[in-house]
Design brief:
The chain is α/β, with parallel strands linked by helices and 265 residues long. It has eleven helices and nine strands. The strands form two sheets. The chain has a seven-stranded mixed sheet with strand order 3-2-1-4-5-7-6. Strands 8-9 form a two-stranded parallel ribbon. Strand 1, helix 2 and strand 2 form a beta-alpha-beta unit. The longest helix has 12 residues. The radius of gyration is 19 Å and the shape is globular. The two termini are 29 Å apart.
Length: 265
């Protein structure tokens, strides 16, 4: 998802930068796109790649002829780079603490914007909407001042906190459409998750997230021109009382509790 959302939102991505991604998973998916001519992977720790090569099934594309690997702090790499170099930048970062903290600062988003070609797209790891919504909102407030279009996409990953992870997608230039693919996968049979319908659906968010991010990004409901009639399972679901008590203090306007422990729709 982190790879295919931005790449299929771009009509002809030729130059791609991957920030982090030392496990090789994002790189493997980028290399499925035959239109991509050059990929630069910047990971600060060479040992991550060495261990990935030895133990991980995702590490299959490090030796692709299109790939250049750089071991350097990504914030420094972008700050020292040439403007207008990349069609797509994918920031496959860890959480915003320790070595990755600099990759969640305004300077880093400004550097990514400068490094994009006109019409370029950034996709960055953007945390879990259930427990990091304040941080997500702060990132969007920052990026809305830098990029011409921003959107939040969501997907399910069982091993992540709450089973969900999100992505910031941001575009440089006018008339960029992030929420619908502009190309069709020629390798669809090789994919287990992504397809054009999943692409579009990933931008359909629970109402409390829509409301929180609305000041910074155009509402999906507004895009569909069905704000009075469209319905979302998450905005209608009622939780068992013990879960509702956990979330009610944060999202009391969106989540309701029921005494009998049943979910009603």
């Amino acid at each position: 998802m982190m790879t295919h959302l931005p790449l299929f939102s771009h009509p002809d991505p030729k130059s791609v930068l991957i920030v982090g991604g030392g496990d090789g998973g994002v790189l493997r998916e980028v290399c499925r796109h035959n239109c991509v001519e050059k990929v630069t992977l910047v990971d600060i720790d060479p040992m991550v790649l060495a261990v990935s090569r030895k133990f991980l099934s995702t590490a299959t594309s490090f030796d692709d002829a299109r790939v250049t690997i750089v071991h350097q702090d990504a914030a420094e790499f972008l700050a020292d780079g040439v403007e207008g170099t990349y069609d797509v930048i994918i920031a496959d970062t860890s959480d915003p603490m320790g070595p990755a903290e600099s990759l969640f600062q305004p300077d880093f988003y400004e550097s990514m914007h400068a490094s994009l070609k006109e019409g370029g797209i950034v996709c960055a790891q953007c945390e879990c909407m259930w427990i990091h919504l304040n941080m997500i909102s702060d990132v969007f407030a920052c990026c809305a001042d830098i990029f011409d279009a921003v959107s939040y996409a969501s997907t399910m990953v069982p091993s992540y906190p709450c089973g969900q992870i999100g992505f910031l997608l941001a575009g440089k230039g006018q008339d960029i459409i992030l929420r619908s693919p502009c190309r069709t996968p020629s390798f669809q049979s090789q994919l287990k998750w992504y397809n054009p319908s999943v692409h579009r659906a990933s931008f359909v968010l629970p109402q409390f997230v829509e409301d929180r991010l609305a000041p910074y990004t155009q509402s999906y409901l507004d895009d569909a021109e069905e704000s009075d009639t469209m319905d979302c399972f998450f905005s209608r679901c009622k939780l068992p009382s013990f879960l509702g008590n956990i979330f009610a203090t944060r999202h009391d306007s969106t989540l309701e509790t029921v005494g009998n422990g049943d979910r009603t729709e």
